[in-house]
């Protein structure tokens, strides 16, 4: 497997009025093609910052980071990834179909191609038939699925997700986790997923990156031993609980000072 | 039509208050007239009466209170009188084919409307362009905005004659253009402020999203900032069009204009005919109401198509 994203000694320091803040310090990580990598840690541990670095939305102050063998900014220009934010961020004045067309319009896809792609991704997230609805007519979970469809509409191999289900209730979240796994199996994309839910991270990932704050750094990288096929009741298996335990230990180690 | 009852209630309240105010407002004029006609008034003489409060005069001369409602030149005309005057100078003249006569309010309202629309167009254009400059350029933000605010602190009555003088120096014929400029001067500000707020309405994550698509400046303007600003724009336009109308009327006051609603108000004042002032005032209010309603309709249509909740 080839590395899609690789970071070496990556650091990012924000200069603030209260002195420098080390959002990331000496982060080394490799993400292979087809991996599902979760980033978990308390707030301020730099997980979102790391994702934004990959996306070229933040610029690291030291170290190297490559995405698809390019600098992140170049990869962004080549539209290497789809990004899903915590809030669905659908444009209220566009229909669901119109929202999914947005990246396609910006990237200059042909009209006929757009129609096919919108239908295809709506089916992927099980929203077929909702194309002409406006966002406010959909539930929060459906809106988030539409925003995932929007990130899938163009041909990016990488999917970056920043706590996409953080604002949803547990029942909806379980359902969406299951759907996301199916979608990942179907599309074979490389996924980087930020979360602060241990079960979510363990259930979804092939690799779990545990991070800790001040300075933001990686405290543990866990390769999942779970099979690729994951029914929801897998979460009561001893293997799952063992993995969850290790993640929890990692989080606790990062917090030893308080 | 659920709104009709409260609206009618308020309207009824205003009418009652108005009719009640007519008596004390007009009592002195009514008594002066009655005294000249030979009636006995307590106290005698208009100079003596000046020291007496209106309620006292009304109590002592009950027979003459009614006369205050039928004066030719009342201090405060009754709503019915204003309505009659309005009808005489609009509908009746139109029926007689004299809608464009110089005595017709339709003619004067048209003159004012014409300048208002030009001023509104000019003010809106300046407001929107200014807002775009302010949102996209830090220099414009720091330099333009303070001037825009200062501009609104200068009384337009003081500025209007200067604009007339300068434009006539520059060889501009007629009052149409200077009036439009004065009106635009009042109208651009709400549009500017509303549009700055509207163009800045998109959240950071929405702007970041466009960055992940590598959208260029034009795309992020036309696909995000502009549509996001439309609800703000329509609200500002409604304020702006009313301001434009006020601007035009003010522009007609100190400039010696002889046509337009502002000129009617001024002439009515100079010739002591409050009825003419009141009917011109109502014509202006009706005109403003129509313009705002029209914009509201356009807003509903536009935002409805953009998925706004009914």
From TrEMBL, chain A:
Entries under InterPro entries matching the protein: AAA+_ATPase, ABC_transporter-like_ATP-bd, ABC_transporter-like_CS, ABC_transporter_ATP-bind, P-loop_NTPase
Keyword Nucleotide-binding: yes
Keyword Cell cycle: no
SUPFAM superfamilies for the chain: P-loop containing nucleoside triphosphate hydrolases
EC code(s) of this entry: 3.6.3.36
Cited CDD domains: ABC_NrtD_SsuB_transporters
A molecular function GO annotation: ATP hydrolysis activity
Alphabetized UniProt keyword annotations: ATP-binding, Hydrolase, Nucleotide-binding, Transport
Residues covered by the ABC transporter domain: 5-238
Stated name of the protein: Taurine import ATP-binding protein TauB
Source organism (scientific name): Roseinatronobacter ekhonensis
From TrEMBL, chain B:
Domain of life: Bacteria
Domain ABC transmembrane type-1, first and last residues per copy: 109-299
Primary localization: membrane
Gene Ontology cellular component terms for the protein in this record: plasma membrane
UniProt-listed GO biological process terms: transmembrane transport
Membrane-topology descriptor: Multi-pass membrane protein
CDD domains, alphabetized: TM_PBP2
Pfam families for this protein: BPD_transp_1
This protein's UniProt keywords: Cell membrane, Membrane, Transmembrane, Transmembrane helix, Transport
Entry's family note: Belongs to the binding-protein-dependent transport system permease family.
Stated name of the protein: Riboflavin transport system permease protein RibX
Native organism taxonomy: Bacteria, Pseudomonadati, Pseudomonadota, Alphaproteobacteria, Rhodobacterales
